[in-house]
Every structure is written in structure tokens, then in C-alpha cells.
Amino acid sequence: MTTPTTAHLLVVDDDMEIRQLLSDYLQQNGYRVSIAADGTAMQQMLKTANINLIILDIMLPGKDGLDLCRELRATSDIPIIMLTARGDDMDRILGLEMGADDYLPKPFNPRELLARIKGVLRRSGTLPHGHNHEINGNYRFNGWILDTSRRHLLSPTGTAVSLSSAEYRLLLAFVSHANRILSRDQLLDLARDRSSFAFDRSIDMLVSRLRHRLQDDTEQPEMIKTVRGEGYLFLPSVETVT
Amino acid sequence: MTTPTTAHLLVVDDDMEIRQLLSDYLQQNGYRVSIAADGTAMQQMLKTANINLIILDIMLPGKDGLDLCRELRATSDIPIIMLTARGDDMDRILGLEMGADDYLPKPFNPRELLARIKGVLRRSGTLPHGHNHEINGNYRFNGWILDTSRRHLLSPTGTAVSLSSAEYRLLLAFVSHANRILSRDQLLDLARDRSSFAFDRSIDMLVSRLRHRLQDDTEQPEMIKTVRGEGYLFLPSVETVT
DNA sequence: CTTTTTTATAACACTCTGTAACAACAGCTG
DNA sequence: CAGCTGTTGTTACAGAGTGTTATAAAAAAG
């Protein structure tokens, strides 16, 4: 590898040998690498280090990788590459759309892992980690502009649309997690006031109000699509503007 | 279920009633089933029969299920599904660490047990399974376009056709496994909501609804053809578009 | 040709979602 | 402080989505 990189990876696998092997290999290729044996160790690591990408084995003792992946997605946009056993039920896993950014069946060629890591980091724009509400600037989608400094929405025709504070937080959650199915619980985590413990159906109401602001049709949505039994999906491709 | 299988299961449970109930139910669903009341009977059975999968109650007189599981793992790779009391996460964790392949809390829906059995057998490489979904991109067939990022369908004339979630998942299963006969069970695995354990006949209904969306004639199908006794076949050649 | 098996679909039951209406509450104004 | 305004969660109910049952039609078997 010619280009130096400073990305910090976290390898989560219960097999010590694999953990060490991957860690060594990735370090040789210029990455900073931390390791964790299970979900709790992973959460611990995420608190103390600024992780750019997680490599997550789907088979883990206790909570499995799918659960962890879903939980992570509730609060974070850190890219995830899932490792699965070959011959495993990949169809099912992919169908679940847990929000992993890529999948790699074991056993794999280490160079392929490297390629995927590069690809995922490139696609994610190597965003800084953390909760969602940190970007200072504007988001643009379908001609609309969400102004995060003024907490303000501009329609494609340029007129200002006022948003209540809950509507703003919800829209921010959507634009910063676009093209991914978000469950009601995840949306509550992302959009609600810390102090409130709302019934998760209250998100429906908020979505309805936000759709109305965006003049989005429920039946043929251009922006917020309902995925029955799973949650909501923000369709437009979102551009961050500074 | 209709697909024949020759897997040989061993049910280990000290409760005679449960043993008999499970045995009957699993046999009705095409499995060969043997039973054992405790660890010694289990070991005896393993010597005399070629068992493909063990369903093991964690609560047993004498040596309990965890011990048996660990002993088995010392000498054998036979897949194990553990049955335990609901809500006991400790058991689940211990079971998985001891090498169980899956875990099912009692009381359970018998169909869920069937689903787990199928899943474990497939993962263990005993049964074949299909290829992978593409994660991103669109599919084109007969002029139709399935847009996976927006989860909707465009007709040859360019009009948007809305699909329900289940219809979308079924169509995705078809286009990503085109020109292959897919059994009802396979389609259920690929298309069902992960929390539901439906009868395989419910696929018929879904196919019927999807055909209607695609304006496909049942008698002279251009897309979804029925293969009597085997399942369904997606006829068009599918092109993946990015 | 009759019987049996399998499939297509209508009808139904049940679940999930959209939203109107209302209640509770906060902030503002006079 | 009363009264107004806007926000936000809850309740209620209509309507859409989905699995099951029932039944007729089609295909295979006898």
C-alpha cells in the first residue's frame, strides 16, 4: 500500500487467534487496530477510542453480531463490515438489512478484506464518529436544504418552512442516516428529547407531521417511506454542504 | 411442509409427553426422529444411529444439558439446538459457549423450532442453499425495473408500481435467484418477515398478489411460472443495473 | 372417466400504520 | 395572572397489509 492511512479499526471476534491474525495483518497495512472479544468489550472500546470502522464477526457468544449491529446503528454511523461463515445463510442475513456496510464470507483472502475496508471508508467519506447531531453545515436532498446552524428548512422554491424542534430532530436523524431502514426505537433514540419516554407509536405522528411539512405523499413517498413491520426509510441521496 | 428431507433428529428430554409431542410433530414434517430420556440414552443412540442434529433440553435429571453439550463437543460436530426456560439469558450464553448451534426458549411455537432446525442444518452444510442478494443496485427484467434503494417497481411504460413490503421481498428473492426453481420453503426463508413463521401455503397468496402487480397471467406466465410439486420459477433473464 | 393431489384466489381475521381529535403543557402577551 | 398560541404525546378509529381457511379449478394418477 502506498497511501498512508490513519483510520482506526476495531476487530470484534471471539476467536483469539483470528483476532490476533487480523490485527497483525491490518497493522502491517498501515491501520491502527484495536480488538474486542464480545459486545461489552466492543462498547467499552467505542467509548474510549475514536473508531472509524468496525469489523464484526456475526457469530459471537451472547449477543450475536446482528443484534450488536442493529444496536450500534441506533446511535452511531460507524461503518461496519460483517464477517459470516461461508455456507451460512447469507440470503437471510442480507435480507435483514441490519445496516452493515459490507459483508465478507469466511474464510476470506486477507487482501479482499483490505479492499472492502478501503471501499467502505471511501464511501462513508471517513466521517467522524459519534452521535448524529454534530455536523455543522447544511444538508441538501431533493432540492430541499436543511440548515443546521439556523435549524431551518428551505423548500426547493426557496421559501422557508418552519419546523418544530421535534420535527427538526427527526429530520436530522433521517438525513444523517439516509438510505437505511430505521426502526421506531432507533428514531426515538435519535430524535426524542432525552427526558421524554414516549410510546414508540408517537414517532408515527411525528413522521406524519414531517411528511406534511415536506409535502410528501404517504402512498407514493419521495422522501420518507414506510417499511411495514420494520420502520421508516429516508429515500433521497443526501449531500452535505458546508 | 412439502419438501422432503432425510435428516435424522434426536430429541433428548426427560418429559415423556414433550418427547412424544415433538417426535410426532417433527415426523409429520418429514424428519426421521429418535428419542432419548437422558444422557446415557443419548450416547447409546448416537452410537447406533447416524444422527444429523440433536434437540437437547437444558434441564435433565443427572447430567444436565450443558454438561452433555460440552461432552458432545469434545468428540463430535453434530449440530445442537438447546431448549431452555424462557428469559434465562444465562443459559443461552452458557449454551452457546458450550458449543450449541442455536437456542430456543420454552414455550415455543413448533413452527419456530422447524425454522431453527432448517437454519442450523443449512449452516452446518447438510442442506444446499441459494446464492446471495446484491446489496445495492437495480434489477431489470422484461422492461420492468426493481429499484432496491427505493423499494419500488417501475413498469415498462415507466409508471411507478407500489409494492408492499412482503411483495418487495418476494420479488427481490425471485430476481436474485432467476431461472431457478425455488421451493416454497426457500421462498419463505428469503422473503418472509424474520419474526413470522408462516405456513408454506401463504407463499401462494403472495405469489398471486405479486402476479397481479406484474400483470402476469397465471395460465401463460411471462414471469412467475408454477412448477407443480416443486415451487416457482422466475422466467425472465435479469440484468443488474447500477 | 373418476379420484386424488396440488394450486389459485376469494373471503376473512388479525395486525400494523396514518392521521384526526384531544389533552397536557410551555411560552408569550397584554 | 388569564388567555392565546404552538408543540407534543395519547387515544381512537379507519384503512391497508398479511397469514389462514375454504373452495373451485387444474393437473396427475388410477
What does this structure look like?
Two copies of one chain form a homodimer. Chain A is of the alpha/beta class. Chain A has two domains: 8-124, Rossmann fold, CATH 3.40.50.2300; 138-241, Orthogonal Bundle (Arc Repressor Mutant, subunit A), CATH 1.10.10.10. Chain A has eight helices and 13 strands. In chain A, a hairpin with a 5-residue loop joins strand 8 (152-154) and strand 9 (160-161). The relative contact order of chain A is 0.11. Chain A binds chain B through residues 61-62, 85, 87-92, 94-96, 102-103, 179, 219-220, 225, 227-230, 233, 235, and chain B through 92-93, 96-97, 119, 122-123, 125, 129-133, 135, 149-151, 160, 162, 164-166, 169, 172-173, 189-191, 193-195. The structure holds a DNA duplex (30 and 30 nucleotides).
Low-confidence stretches of chain A: 1-5, 126-131
Counting structural domains of chain A, the number is 2
CATH topology of the largest domain in chain A: Rossmann fold
Helix content of chain A: 25-40%
Tell me, what is the CATH class of the largest domain in chain A? Alpha Beta
Subunit arrangement of the protein: homodimer
Compressed to H and E, one letter per element, the order of chain A equals EHEHEHEHEHEEEEHEHHEEE
Strand order of the largest sheet of chain A: 2-1-3-4-5
Q: Determine the N-to-C terminus distance of chain A.
A: 32 Å
What would you say the CATH architecture of the largest domain in chain A is?
A: 3-Layer(aba) Sandwich
CATH superfamily of the largest domain in chain A: Response regulator
| Number of extended strands of chain A | 13
Biggest sheet layout of chain A: 5 strands, parallel
How many separate helices of chain A?
8
Biggest chain pair contact, residues each?
A-B, 24 and 31 residues
What is the SS-derived class of chain A?
Answer: alpha/beta
Radius of gyration of chain A: 19 Å
Strand content of chain A: 15-25%
